[in-house]
Structures are given as structure tokens and as C-alpha cells.
Fold this sequence. Notes:
Blueprint: H1 2-26, E1 31-37, E2 42-46, H2 48-51, H3 55-67, H4 69-99, H5 106-121, E3 124-128, E4 142-157, E5 162-174, E6 187-192, H6 199-204, H7 209-231
Parallel strand pairs: 1-3, 1-4, 2-4
Antiparallel strand pairs: 4-5, 5-6
Helix pairs in contact: 3-4, 5-7
Amino acid sequence: MLRSLSSLWTCAAAAAAILLATSSFAQEAPRKIAIQIEGNAEFDVIHRRALGSTTGANLGAVVAGALGGLIGAGVLAGSAGIEAGVQSAVDAEKRDAIYLHVAEQAWRDFFIRSLTDSLAEKGLETVWIDAGTKPRAGTADIYMVLYPARFGFRMVDTTSLMMASFIEFEAAYSTTPISGKSKSMKEPFYLTDQTQVSYDQLIADPEGINPRIESVLRKAARRLTNKLYYNVK
């Protein structure tokens, strides 16, 4: 009987120790990540440019073959420049038509807030650093600089002319404050959504624009979070 009581007491003591250790671990302060944002995320639509039309280049090549030398080279460069201008102008019209329906704070609400939430789920508390400010050592456990680039819609299939929402940005992260040469250690991120849609469908159903943008921006936030969580110790 005494031996049984002794065993019960040993088990109870062990359980209490485990509970105490678990409680202490849960109460530990979360790791901090200091984040700076340099630049702005621009909304873009890449449609005509994705087709890679070579009309101007082909015309220049024909002239270059016929006349040779600097004249042909000049026509080639000029034709390519004109074609690029046409492509950009067409895409600008499509961008403006879609942008009318894009949430005003899409980047902040879909990407930044998702990033903050997903970091918190991993036990990382976000500390925002003003752009141009140098964070001091000891401010956080992890430091990151975000370099927004573009988000929007781009053609992903030149045969079917189907488009998908996309996002492009760069990020540099380290366990020490990022400045000077360490800023060159940028990692590029490029993601497209899995669902595809034509430009005409987007315009015909503008209510579907923001959900598609939200989908890829949230996915990008989770991708970046996982990169940080598993690669920065």
C-alpha cells in the first residue's frame, strides 16, 4: 500500500512539473519582428505586353536585311520602341478600367494585415519601423525590409488569353538590423493565383475582381511568413 501511494505521489509530482513547464512556456513573450516598407505597391494589368508582339521588330529586321548597317538597326530600334509604346498604352486602358473596382487599400488590407496575422500565428509580434529609420540592435529578434513592386492581373496563357491575379515584391530579412550592404540580399517573390479569367469576364463581373486579388495577396503573405519562420532562427 505504501509503495502504491509513493508511486501515485511520484506521478502527480511529474504531472505538476510538466504543467508548470507548459504554463511557463505559454507565458513567454513572443519573438518580435521589425518590419520596414520601402516603396509602394503599384496596381498593374499586363495583357498586351504579355503577348510579346514582334511586329515592329520583324519590320526592322526586314529593313535591316534590305538596307543593312545603321539604317536597318535604327529602324529596328525605332519600330520596337513604337510597338512597346502601343502595348503599354493598351494595357494602361485595361488597367484603368479594372482599377475602378479595386479596393482602395487592397495592399494594406489584403497583404499587410494578412502578414501581421500569419506572423502572430507563428508567435511573432510585429514591430513596424518608419521608412528611412534605422532600427537599433535589440529592437527585435528578426528584421525585415519589404520592397513592394506590383500586384494586379496579368496574362498567363497567351493561347487562351486567360489572366490571373499576381503579386511581385522583394524582401530582405536577417537576425540583425538590415542596412547598407545587407539590403542587397533581397529575395524576389512572384505568385499568381490558381484561378484564371479573361479580361472580358473581369469587366463583365467586377465583383469578382477583389476576391481574386485578395486570394493571391493572402497567399503571398503566408508564403513570406513561412519563409521567415523556417529560415530565420
